[in-house]
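Show me any protein, keeping tokens residue-aligned.
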Amino acid sequence: MFVHLIYAAIYSVLVVSLLISYDLFIKNFKELNLRLSFKILIGVVLFISQVYFIISFSLNSIGYVAYEYTIPIFIYYFGILKEKIYLIGLVPVILLTFFALINKFEWGAMLFIIGLNYIILIITCLLKKRFYGQTNHTVFYLFSIVVTVVSPMVNALLFHRREVGLWDAVTLGIGSVAIVSLWKYYLQNQKNFLEKINTKIIERNYDELTKVKNFRSLNEDISKLVINEKDQLVVVMMDLDHFKQINDHHGHQIGNQALTFFSDKLTTFLYQKSPSHLIEVYRYGGEEFLVLFKENTSVSVKKIIEEFHLFLSNEQLKLEGTQLTLYFSAGISEAGPTLDISEIFYQADQALYEAKRKGRNRTIIFS
């Protein structure tokens, strides 16, 4: 009895470690700098070696195959690759190959195992479709426990005529519950880790006050632009008019409120006008903001910015006992085949100063 519990503990840790290794492989699949065919080959070999090891180790240690379906159904349910559906189909192939190698192959058992595999696959697909987007995966976990307990009984009965007794079933259940518990612990830690990473990314790349991207993020985004994106790039440099007077008359706290108010209205307005992946808003410095428009022209962008002039003039920042209307000047520059990014920024900046010289509260295209 004690030995069975030790094996249950060993198997649960072993299975979860294999699940984690494959989960990390799947999540980094696209980032691997390898040919697609080679990445798939690595994934298949990794999976086959894991399942084969489970089959071999369990048969040699306790006399029947255990946990052979646990790895693929977890990978399929929680994985993000379309190809993972084929992994479940590999299980009976690996299982039957193993028994053929040790001269325990039976056609009747083979057909039964394949049928059992398809039933497991269908139910897993239905559960994923129904529950994967939710935070509670209890139904899937219960299903995985049932599969873990029942499948060794079926395989042992068909292949080795060895009875899986009550205590065997209990220890299998304990092991499967341990797998579920360890997996949930892993997922929760992954979630906490990603939240910390996202927080650090936000702190690093976003302006704390206005919540738009900062100058550091601008430099990183520019370096990632491909050639065809640069050819369709329009840069808008924006500067709040008479911002110094706002700080002098109302104080820096109200000045900060004005910057937050302006950035919020700007992002809300722009994302209503164009898909969010084609627009990026940055705080360039002080009261100056920069907007990148992808797949656009300076004429169409000027129309959008002039609409924002009108929109902003009808929005008031409510203060104690008074209201404040904000105005801004803007300069626009469009990328050309011979211009680099620094020149585009310089032209937008020059157009902005021209707008200031001509009376502010206007938008000018560099010419």
